[in-house]
């Protein structure tokens, strides 16, 4: 099913309830058994992934060091379930002074901050590998809204810098654990504004299930295999 939001933005395969610029969304369904199974699945997959990907970690670390000699990991505070902050680590894909020179901005097409190794890591999502540890520890899940930086800003079409915590849907998306992948990452165009991505996040919260999670995980592996995570159009 295809629906349009109040501004005419097409959302593929899902439906949204909107009044003006404010989303109306039911609370996540309470399914304790499903939540426990999801957590077991997260721990099992993250643990296996950490062990199996160790040679890949070594190769990526060497490639980053050989390119510019900077730090291998990029560490940030992120906002998790219930507004809880946690420390997130990724393989560094931007130059070491990116935040100091540009501030916490969302990456964009042709971003000058991204290194050559970083372009490959972003296209294949291999920069996200260290977040398997966040999943294993319980800060994140494999599937859910992407964790955002507390002070992140978005630049609007008019050049205005808008704090993301002022965008409708920001608070509601923290009802669940953030994820390594999610509905917005798989289906949403890469560079749409956050308010549209938040609609995908809130729809996931309303409709979450193990079946949906497994589908999104499978699709994410396919996108990774094709190296299409940085695609600005269709990933499939």
What does this structure look like?
The protein is α+β, with helices and mostly antiparallel strands. The chain has one domain. The chain has a two-stranded antiparallel ribbon. Strand 1 and strand 2 form a beta hairpin. Helix 1 packs across helix 5. It is globular and about 45 Å long.
Q: In percent terms, what proportion of residues is strand?
A: 15-25%
Helices, by number, come to 8
Distance N to C terminus = 18 Å
The overall number of domains is: 1
One letter per element, helices H and strands E, the order comes to: EEEEHHEEHHHEEEEHHH
Poorly predicted spans: 1-26
The overall strand count is 10
Q: Radius of gyration, Cα only, in angstroms? A: 17 Å
Q: Give the class from helix and strand content and strand pairing.
A: alpha+beta
- Percent in helix: 25-40%
**Order of strands side by side in the largest beta sheet?**
1-2
Average residue pLDDT:
83
Largest sheet: 2 strands, antiparallel
Q: Sum up the overall morphology in one term.
A: globular
Notable characteristics:
two-stranded antiparallel ribbon; 236 residues; disordered N terminus; two-stranded antiparallel sheet; 8 helices; alpha+beta; 39% helix
Give the helix/strand layout:
Blueprint: E1 2-4, E2 10-12, E3 18-19, E4 22-23, H1 32-52, H2 54-68, E5 73-79, E6 85-91, H3 98-102, H4 116-124, H5 131-137, E7 141-143, E8 153-155, E9 161-163, E10 179-181, H6 183-187, H7 194-207, H8 210-226
Parallel strand pairs: 7-10
Antiparallel strand pairs: 1-2, 3-4, 5-6, 8-9
Quickly describe the structure.
The chain is of the alpha+beta class.
